[in-house]
Amino acid sequence: MKKIFLFTVLLLNAVVYAQDDVLKKVARETCECIEEKKSKSGDLAGDDLTSTLGICMVKSYSDHVSEFKNKVEFNDKDGMTNLGKEVGIKMLEFCPNVILELGKQDKGDADAEEEDIYVSGEVIDIKIEQFVTLQIKDQKGRNYTFLLLDYFDTASLLTNNEVKKKDKLNVGYTEIELFDTKTKEFRAYKILRKLEKL
Q1: HSE-CB for 44 with a 13 A CA cutoff
Q2: Cα dist. 176→34, 146, 147, 149, 173 in Å?
Q3: Residues 6+ apart with CB under 8 A from 99
């Protein structure tokens, strides 16, 4: 019985080691492919780097697909994502600069999604109910309604009643979807992020 157990453990270790070995092969070849493409076309950045990474990884995976114990179909999005993560971790050993560059790019994309939108105009009304609502009209005559939901550096202009009707403001905001209980549906609301008196 002990021999069967020991044989099973050794067999499982061999399978795990073989899987790890092929992942390292794919990671190394992916790094080499990226470096080769960088040298031919200059520096890769942004979407070009992401596309090149994907192409190189798929090529190497295709070359070694027979060595994988758990094969992943190209139309299996979750499987390909997991494979990409595993290969990406192994790539840190061969080309950490590429992974760091991709990390910076992802952070930049996340920051860009969080950027505020700005509009300038004249204050039409300020309503103080459950939330403070600020209404302004821009230079083209379009009306905007903003909600004060979060704290930000210049929120005190509203909370200390320093903003009055007819004041000119530059307003930074972001849009989020909230459930409107009156209409019984989700709708986009403009949430204040910055106020500046002009």
Answers
A1: 22
A2: 38, 11, 11, 11, 10
A3: 88, 91, 92
- The answer to whether 92 and 99 have CB atoms below 8 angstroms apart is yes
CA atoms within 13 A on the CB side of 169: 30
**CA proximity to 131, closest of 148, 146, 144, 145:** 148
Indicate left, alpha or beta for 130 from its phi (over 0: left) and psi (-120 to 50: alpha).
alpha
Q: Answer for the pair 120, 138: CB distance below 8 angstroms, yes or no.
A: yes
pTM, 2 dp: 0.47
Alpha-carbon span 12 to 106, nearest angstrom: 36
Conformation bin of residue 190: beta by default, left when phi > 0, alpha when psi is -120 to 50: beta
Q: Which residues contact 26 (CB under 8 A, 6 or more apart)?
A: 57, 60, 61, 64, 87, 90
Give pLDDT tens digits for 12-44: 333 344 467 888 998 899 889 888 888 887 776
- What tokens does 70 get? 């758990």
Q: How many other β-carbons are positioned within 10 Å of the β-carbon of residue 147?
A: 17
